[in-house]
């Protein structure tokens, strides 16, 4: 069948391990678009680090950012849907991070704020540079002019395993998920890639069985199971591969291109 909408995760899926986008994959995506299929990047990234990829591929349309917490029109940068986080619920998590030396940031749809801008560690600054983000100093809650949509903790995989175990024992007001080996995200309970994709599909008049989703990590599970065709990358954890309808090649082998040729251009 012809899929009307294809949701693509970015890191570990569309991009290889060096955060590069293969020219051959771009060409294949453009060919799919000429058939009338809509491409939506569905990522844990912020809009400002996702829209440039859309522009590089010559695409317009929507990006589902912050793991589903904010959906943005890539051309106009209008926020078409977002889930707001209650800042009061974040306080215990912020205290935990401060007490245990865990770096964290809080995000509006377009802004990223850190606790201590001065003295950021080199690996933290390098991480933000890799994601095309410029951190700002976290102001007082009352001075934030836009809703918060996501809280992210950043540390080594081993430290985050400990953090995740600790926070899992708490009464959880958030959708808490591992969005990568080095990240834990906290969002509104209803916010997820799958739910954001569902809301966008309703807006576009597209049924779930007309949607293909391709992803590689735990934060992609909701969209892989919502879409009519959910495809996991070969570099996905076993749980993600088992939840998908099929598995394509890895992100370092242009697995997205392989899946698009198989299902959209054959």
TrEMBL record:
GO terms for molecular function: hydrolase activity. InterPro entries: Cof (IPR000150), HAD-like_sf (IPR036412), HAD-SF_hydro_IIB (IPR006379), HAD_sf (IPR023214). The keyword Hydrolase applies. Keywords: Hydrolase. Pfam families: Hydrolase_3. NCBIfam families: Cof-subfamily, HAD-SF-IIB. PANTHER family: HAD SUPERFAMILY HYDROLASE-LIKE, TYPE 3, PHOSPHOSERINE PHOSPHATASE. This is Cof-type HAD-IIB family hydrolase.
């Amino acid at each position: 069948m012809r899929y009307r909408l294809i949701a693509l995760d970015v890191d570990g899926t569309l991009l290889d391990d060096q955060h590069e986008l293969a020219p051959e994959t771009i060409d294949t995506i453009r060919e799919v678009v000429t058939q009338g299929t809509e491409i939506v990047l569905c990522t844990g990234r912020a809009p400002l680090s996702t829209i440039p990829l859309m522009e590089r591929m010559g695409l317009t349309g929507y990006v589902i950012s912050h793991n589903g917490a904010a959906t943005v029109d890539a051309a106009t940068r209008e926020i078409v849907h977002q889930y707001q986080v209650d800042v009061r619920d974040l306080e215990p998590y912020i205290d935990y991070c401060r007490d245990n030396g865990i770096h964290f940031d809080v995000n509006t749809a377009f802004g990223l704020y850190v606790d201590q801008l001065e003295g950021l560690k080199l690996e933290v600054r390098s991480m933000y540079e890799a994601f095309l983000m410029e951190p700002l100093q976290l102001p007082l809650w009352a001075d934030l002019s836009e809703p918060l949509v996501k809280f992210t903790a950043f540390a080594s995989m081993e430290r985050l395993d400990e953090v995740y175990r600790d926070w899992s024992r708490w009464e959880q007001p958030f959708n808490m998920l591992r969005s990568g080996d080095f990240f834990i995200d906290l969002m509104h309970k209803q916010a997820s890639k799958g739910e954001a994709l569902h809301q966008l599909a309703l807006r576009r008049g597209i049924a779930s069985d007309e949607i293909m989703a391709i992803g590689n990590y735990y934060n992609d599970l909701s969209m892989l199971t919502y879409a009519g065709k959910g495809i996991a990358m070969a570099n996905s954890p076993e749980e993600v591969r088992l939840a998908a309808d099929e598995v394509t090649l890895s992100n370092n082998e242009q697995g997205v291109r392989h899946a698009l040729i198989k299902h959209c251009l054959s």
